[in-house]
Write a structure and sequence with these properties.
The complex is a heterodimer of chains A (451) and B (168).
Chain A: H1 33-42, E1 52-54, H2 60-63, H3 66-87, H4 95-104, H5 109-136, H6 150-172, H7 178-192, H8 198-206, H9 213-244, H10 252-255, E2 271-273, E3 277-279, E4 295-297, H11 298-323, H12 345-356, E5 359-361, E6 364-366, H13 368-390, H14 407-430
Antiparallel strand pairs in A: 1-4, 2-3, 5-6
Chain B: H1 2-33, E1 45-49, E2 57-61, E3 66-71, E4 74-79, E5 90-102, E6 105-114, E7 121-122, E8 128-130, E9 139-144, E10 151-159, E11 165-166
Classes of the chains: A mainly alpha (451), B alpha+beta (168).
Chain lengths: 451, 168
């Protein structure tokens, strides 16, 4: 009976199978390029990154790292959302009480809820600022003749902004307080203002003709499963597109630099590329991407900055959550509309729009609910999605802040942003009881809260 | 050989088609199941109480989101649901009673209505006068219950602004 020889200590390690990484260990502080590459290939999470990153794309001042901030906030939302998922009861009778328990009874409950709420608010802001940055730097534009499709990623980004907003909307309904109830009332009535399909759409959203248990459970399932799932799928696709498009737009120029002169390799060494390509010389030709002055190893240069951004975001939110408590309005009361009834800040510009856009032509009335709540925001989203094809500026304008060739469109864009901000300001600070305009120094009249 | 390739193409097509039908069927069934077949609505015809219990002037019924007006033995009811986006309007008493021709008949206006959500304003007869409201507030049919003589509102039946229920 043949026995396998005992492996002796002195015998050389067997060669790894093709595609199997020989060393399970990797280092966040690699001593060589080889170790830096190992870290990317051998680590499940780091595999997300390329082995080499372009120096230009790591610039703080270019991207402001707003996408990473948004992703970090999403991570915080998942982490803080999980305990809330155990504690919140999605029932119209008990939702309010369960949120009150989270706030006043559960250990750390109030802090966890604050982390969740603040992350949500900050994520809306971060995603919006990320979109503003991408527009202003023309980062949805492609380099010349490089087969990129950055416009797809721009569309993905716009959709992700909408999903983020819808996640916020479905989220602040869950406490089933006054804010929730009247936000559902107004939000679904905006949907019902759409001609022909409006009423059916509203019934589908509510799960009936009135706001009740089916409504809460619909928004709950959207908030905890459907929308986060969609957002993660979109996020993965968004990141994959960045890789497929050759990195950030600002790095296109570094890639366009001439490749370093090819040094014929000495035929004495055996090379292996990820265990797939083997031979006596590298089978993939070096391009300028490999130039030491334009590229760095992702580990540690990219990972260090990403860690700083993620940890910084977590620190800011964690501390803010101690200082800023989360409000909870009175329990949902279908009998009394609060006065004034205000949406959260990121929807106030829409609340202003639906207020200001009802107009009459003779006996014909256009409802602001349709014009301001559906047509105008719809047109804005359509314009944003179509913009990469309407932007006629040269490819050289991609990945630069305020290039001369994109001055007009950047100004128009900033004007629209400013308009949205002004409407938000008016809604936030200048609207008092009965949605009347008050200057900041004017006192609101004392009105009974109930009739 | 060409014949064989056609058959393969055909089978691949069948496979893809079956996949599309299978997934599409699941999707349609899932979406259709979310369209409610039954709506457990509150009844639209509600007994509001004996007419004698209503004060002269206006009474707000929050449960029905309804204003009931009484002028002697004449009654009418106006909805409190804003025609813009469905918030509940609030009544504000006028400093002095005005009289307006409504539906060809004089009507004493004691209040006006203001919406807290987007600032729509309505006169005492429900006529929209300012803000985004596209239509006047709805007027609803009032009757007396045959069995106990209570005031009954039918919120599924809007009526014209000349409607008055006079109890003799």
């Amino acid at each position: 009976m043949a026995t396998l020889p005992e492996p002796s200590v002195s015998s050389p390690a067997p060669a790894a199978a093709p595609g199997v990484h020989p060393r399970p260990l990797w280092s966040l502080r690699p001593a060589s390029d080889r170790e830096a590459g190992d870290a990317i290939v051998a680590n499940f999470l780091l595999h997300w990154f390329p082995a080499k990153a372009l120096r230009a794309s790591l610039e703080w001042r270019y991207s402001l790292w707003l996408g990473t901030v948004s992703a970090a906030l999403l991570l915080l939302l998942v982490v803080s959302g999980l305990p809330l998922l155990f504690l919140h009861v999605p029932s119209v009778e008990r939702a309010y009480g369960s949120v009150k328990d989270i706030e006043y009874v559960v250990t750390f409950g109030s802090w966890i809820r604050s982390v969740h709420r603040l992350s949500a608010h900050l994520m809306v802001a971060a995603v919006f600022l990320h979109l503003v940055r991408v527009f202003l730097t023309g980062a949805y534009k492609n380099g010349v003749g490089r087969g990129q499709h950055r416009e797809w990623n721009w569309i993905l980004g716009v959709v992700m902004l909408l999903v983020t907003l819808f996640l916020s909307f479905t989220g602040y309904l869950l406490p089933w307080d006054q804010l929730a109830y009247w936000a559902v009332t107004v939000g679904t009535n905006i949907a019902s203002a759409i001609p022909l399909v409006g009423e059916e759409l509203r019934e589908l959203m509510l799960g009936g003709r009135t706001i009740d248990q089916p409504t809460l459970i619909r928004f709950y399932v959207l908030h905890v499963i459907v929308l986060p799932g969609a957002l993660f799928a979109l996020l993965a696709y968004h990141m994959w597109r960045i890789r497929k498009d050759g990195g950030l737009a600002c790095a296109d120029r570094a890639v366009a630099l001439p490749a370093p002169a090819e040094v014929p390799p000495a035929a004495t060494k055996t090379y292996s590329l990820l265990g797939i390509a083997r031979g006596t010389h590298p089978t993939i030709r070096a391009t300028s991407v490999e130039r030491p002055e334009t590229t760095v190893s992702s580990v540690p240069d990219l990972t260090r900055r990403a860690a700083i951004v993620v940890l910084g975001t977590m620190a800011v939110v964690s501390i803010l959550a101690v200082l800023v408590p989360s409000p909870l309005e009175e329990p949902a009361n279908p009998l009394v509309t609060p006065n004034p009834a205000k949406a959260p800040w990121y929807f106030l510009w829409l609340q202003e729009l639906v207020t200001d856009t009802t107009f009459r032509i003779g006996s014909f009335t256009v409802n602001g609910a349709f014009l301001g709540g559906v047509i105008l925001p719809g047109a804005l989203v359509t314009l944003m999605i179509a913009w990469p094809w309407l932007d006629r500026s040269p490819a050289s304008a991609a990945g630069r802040w305020f290039p001369r060739s994109r001055r007009t469109q950047n100004l128009v864009f900033l004007l629209i942003v400013l308009l949205v901000l002004v409407l938000t300001y008016v809604g936030l600070f200048a609207r008092g009881p009965y949605w009347n305009l008050y200057w900041p120094w004017e006192a609101w009249p004392q009105l009974p809260t109930r009739i | 050989m060409a014949e064989r390739k056609d058959r393969r193409d055909f089978l691949v097509g069948i496979g893809i088609g079956a996949g599309v039908v299978a997934l599409g069927g699941q999707g349609i069934a899932a979406l259709r199941s979310l369209v409610p077949n039954v709506s457990y609505d509150a009844p639209t015809t509600v007994k509001l109480g004996p007419p004698a219990e209503f004060p002269d002037g206006m009474k707000f019924l929050p449960e029905q989101r309804l204003f009931v007006f009484r002028e002697g033995n004449t009654f009418h009811a106006i909805s409190a649901v804003c025609t813009h986006l469905g918030c509940t309007v609030r009544a504000e008493a006028l400093p002095r009673v005005e009289t307006k021709e409504v539906g060809g008949r004089p009507l004493k206006l004691t209040h006006r209505f203001l919406c807290p959500c987007h600032g729509s304003r309505y006169e005492g007869d429900g006529q929209n006068v300012a803000g985004p409201a596209p239509r006047p507030l709805a007027w609803y049919d009032l009757t007396l219950a045959a069995d106990d003589g209570q005031l009954v509102v039918d919120m599924a039946r809007p009526v014209a602004h000349d409607f008055r229920l006079t109890i003799v």
